[in-house]
Amino acid sequence: xxxxxxxxxxxFSIIVLVFFAVPKIMGMPKSVAGFTQxxxxxxxxxxFFRLFTGGAExxxxxxxxxxxFTKNNKLGIVAFVFLLATMVSALVIEFLVRPSPxxxxxxxxxILSITSIYKLLNIQHHEKLKR
Length: 131
Fold this sequence. Notes:
Elements: H1 2-26, H2 29-42, H3 46-70, H4 73-96, H5 103-130
Helix pairs in contact: 1-3, 1-5, 2-3, 3-4, 4-5
């Protein structure tokens, strides 16, 4: 049962990350507008920040995908620490930078943060069993 839950979390994370990465990388108008809001507050070029964020999300999705097939726990740790850091950063930006937080984005970031913590604890537990 735990293995099924782990795979569901992996697939869900990949789908969500790709779903949000592609519009950023492709420069979709809604994504461009959202990152333009951040430029004046953060002092970071909106296009650079948008592409960096989309690239990071895509990279995390690839790391999780590779982890799914290789079962390399070190890679899993890197992937889910990176995902957790990205989601915590997204929450900080939603609450401190965006004029009014978008509930759906907040909810997704919280869910991905919780699942990242679960996966990290699960990997750590699995590593202890190996010893």
